[in-house]
Amino acid sequence: MNKFPVCPIFIPANRLEWVEKTFDKGTDAVIIDLEDSVPKEQKDETRNNLFSYLDSHDFDKTILIRVNPVDGEFGKEDMKTLSEVSSKIDAFMLPKIEQAGVLNDLPDNLIALIETPKSIQNLEEISCHKNVIGIALGGADLSASLGSDMSWDSLLFTRSKIIIEAAANNLFTIDSPFMNIEDISSLENESVLSNGLGFDGKAAIHPNQIETITKSFLPNESDIQEAKEIIKLFNSSSEAVIAYKGKMIDMPIVLSMEKRLRLVGIDPKNID
Predict the structure, then answer these.
(1) DSSP 3-state assignment of 226?
(2) If you count Cβ atoms within 10 Å of the first and of the last residue's Cβ in the chain, which end, N or C, has fewer?
């Protein structure tokens, strides 16, 4: 994966005609879902159709696949079948991962979906696993198992733990979807909080959420220009700390500015 997804959007695997349409609406990634959105009696046919679809299509954007739980027969068959077209898949999203041991014989491009109390308890060992490249929060299932609501404060502990473990293991992070597709204002508020906490992106469940999430996570032109100026000024100085428009700038700030540029595909080592 060349770039972690900022606004991956869930698409039912039995509605593959939506994939290209959704990319046209501006998302940078899709999560093709074989789990919750596909009825049990359709799972085998849907999996086979997805295999044929991936085998016959090429995309220049990120394709993620949420399989069924890998400790069950549907999940095992998902991984077996789709591994044959793994070159078309940027990462497999694994639901309800509670133990790192189940990841041992799987590919090395896994996103662990944290959505049960045991997932939280074992998050450190899951995050350390060599096959895991990202961590995602499944807020709906988690809140149901906790008996809580899905508000920011209710799941803040889990969000914070995900950020800490991901940072320690150099993983990207995806925050849980915001479930009210009509409340764009609250979506924006939660996206800003997610970004501020350290999440790299937030999943969407409807195309009308794409623009709001993307704007909340990606730097604007002013942010980009500031990052370039800070990096240039710091690199031209022999001091460990410099001043920029009244702000004190040291190496941690420079590193955050470099990350800001990478979010929009700019190489901070090669800026004009």
Answers:
(1) helix
(2) C
Q: Name the residue among 102, 166, 160, 251 with its Cα closest to residue 92.
A: 102
What tokens does 205 get? Answer: 């469940």
Quick: pLDDT tens for 156-210: 999 999 999 999 999 999 999 999 999 999 999 999 999 999 999 999 999 999 9
Distance CA 213, CA 184 (A): 10
CA pair distance 58, 87, nearest whole angstrom: 10
- In the chain, the amino acid numbered 241 is V
Separation of alpha carbons 188 and 118, rounded Å: 30
> Are the CB atoms for 186 and 213 separated by under 8 Å?
no
CA distance linking residue 26 with residue 209, whole number of Å:
10
pTM of this prediction exceeds 0.85: yes
Helix (H) or strand (E) holding 264: none
212 CB-near residues (< 8 Å, 6+ apart):
184, 187, 188, 191
How far is CA 251 from each of CA 36, 170, 261, rounded to the nearest angstrom? Answer: 44, 19, 15
Would you state the structure tokens that stand for residue 207, as one six-digit string? 């195309």
Distance in angstroms (rounded) separating the CA atoms of residues 268 and 128: 28
